[in-house]
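Here's my example:
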Amino acid sequence: MTEAIIDSPETRLRDAVKRRIAARYRAEFRFRLYGMIAIALTALFLLIVLVDILLKGLPAFTVHQFRFDVPVVLTDIDPAKAKDPEVLRAADYHALVRDALRNHFPDVKDRVGRRRLDGLISSGASDALRHQVVADPSLVGKTLSIAALVSADAELYFKGTGTAIERKSGASAISVSGQEGPVTLSTSGSDFSEWAKAYRQRYAKLGEKLDAAVPSLLVALNGGLVKVNEIAAGNISGEVLLPLKSAGDAQAGTWQLVTYLTPESNRRVKDREVAWLEELRAKGIVERSFNWRFFTSGDSREAELAGIRGALVGSALTLLVTLLICLPLGVAAAIYLEEFAPKNRATELIEVNINNLAAVPSIVFGLLGLAVFLNFFGLPRSAPLVGGLVLALLVLPTIIIASRAALKAVPPSIKEAALGVGASHQQAVFHHVLPLAMPGILTGTIIGMAHALGETAPLLMIGMVAFIVAPATSVTDAATVLPVQIYLWSDLPEIGFQAKTAAAIIVLLMFLFVMNGAAIYLRKKFERRW
């Protein structure tokens, strides 16, 4: 009897219901789990991208400079003693800065050495000195302390892309045959033999003679630096990179075995230049500061001088033209289609085409701008005026759709109440419906402008890829925009532009975050719940 009750239809039905409920709960759990996994993966990929951009771009916001005392010699700057601003502006200030650097290394007298030494400072290293003297001619004849911008290669070295350096103190006394040129070093202990043994075990392919394909070996003693060219059992031969203050013996613990771990052939900064840079750093001449030049300078072929000011001004002018065109046209079109247009096949066709235009690839609008604005109307190439017109066409469908949605969100009772107290249809729309829909319209407009700010393809088609040094002063001047500037820098082979590219991307993302944040703020602030 008990078995019959257990196997009854009601029991089987109840068990089946329990199984179905359990299966439904498992399905819901799996769905939630899949959703959480998808969100976690998306957040992970986004985090990886942002961290990678930040790590590559943040170094570009700082810059290294040499702090020099530069005598502004009257005969070099103003031979006629006229103190004419044009004469002072045209003077060769770079020679003054170059001589100030050479004074720190008076032993460098060969032509190749001087050329390499001069290459440690940027071609724009004298700009600050020029501006200072032109602004105050009374400084001529005085000695000024200036910050000279280092070259791109020196900048990369100071930022850690040069070579790691290992140092090991000598365990025995060492003697040197001279203070300059080729020298021979010998020691009473086993420093060199142990060093040579360890070095050959690590780089067995080279034996005892060293070349640029392996890490550089140096000896620091008596205030100088010797590069090792050949290792023997008890001595080494090498060439002096920094002159020794004396040629006497150095006691144990007062000299070092130095290794530049990155081979010289894999570095843009060679051993001699590394020695100079480390010497300048040891003297406290190297300074690090915020890179204001990145925001105040235009484009340049030299990475350390390149900035985004021209691109920022071009982006501002282009977006201004875009806003002035697409906002009134987009809102007017949305009001007409939503409130005044008759509902027939013609308006339906227009609405379908507007929705389709919102999904058209942006490069198509660039082709349209090239054919119409440049070739047909003959507007200036690479101008913010043409860029703004093209981006206005691109953003217009988005603003129309967002504005219509905002108008629809206003309760019909608002307009009906206005009509009920005697207002005309036009008054009801413009005096009551439109003000209540403005937060949604502004939100759609800001999002559309953020979309326009990040566009590159249509602007490339109308020629906004010019090399722009001076910022544009009007909407008809040649200009570029921030996304195009990023594209141009990313295509350059110089390593210094990699950080500049990532830094420009950071600036662009900040603008996008601000614009989208403003849209969210406006939506929250003016949002009404009906």
Remarks:
- The chain has four domains: 2-55, 60-144, 163-266, 305-526.
- The CA atoms of residues 45 and 51 lie 10 Å apart.
